[in-house]
Amino acid sequence: MKKLYKPENEMELSLIKSIFDGEGIHYHILNDHFGSLHIGPQIDFYNARILMVHESQYAKAKDLIAYYINNTREEITVPFKSQYSIADKIRMIIEVILFGWIVPRNRINK
After folding, report:
1. 3-class DSSP state for residue 103?
2. How far apart are CA 96 and CA 76, in angstroms?
3. d(CA 110, CA 107)
C-alpha cells in the first residue's frame, strides 16, 4: 500500500471514499476510527487519517484525487465579509454586558 492523500476534514474523507467505492478502487484509511478520537493537530501515524491505495491502482486513484481537488477548490471561493459595522460592534458589547452572550451578525449591504 502506498500513501496517497491526507484529507483535510471528515467530509472530504467521506467524499473521497465514496468516489473510490464508485470506481472500484481498494483503499485503506490509516487511523480511520482512531483519528477522530484525538482532537488537536493532525500528526502522521498518531491521529491523522491517511488514505492509502494499492500500488497497482495508485495512478488511477491519484488522477481521481487530482480531479476532485481541482474541481472543488475553485467552487469554494465565496465572498466573505470579515468586518462589522460600528452599530454591530456596539450592539455586541451591550449584549455581553446586559445578557452575558454574544451573537455576531454578518450583514451584507446591497
Report:
1. coil
2. 33
3. 9
Q: List, in sequence order, the alpha helices (H) in the chain.
A: 10-23, 58-75, 86-99
* 84 close to 103: Cβ distance less than 8 angstroms: no
Which cell goes with 89?
A: 460592534
**Residues contacting 2, CB < 8 A, separation 6+:** 52, 53, 54, 55, 58
pLDDT level of residue 76 (50, 70, 90 thresholds): very low
pLDDT at 103 over 90: no
Backbone angles phi, psi at 59, to 5 degrees: -65, -45
Model pTM?
0.57
pLDDT in tens, 10-67: 888 889 999 999 999 999 887 777 655 656 666 666 677 888 999 999 999 999 988 8
Q: Are 1 and 61 in contact (CB under 8 A)?
A: no
Other Cβ atoms within 10 Å of 25 Cβ, number: 18
Domains recognised in the chain with CATH numbers: 2-75 (3.30.70.790)
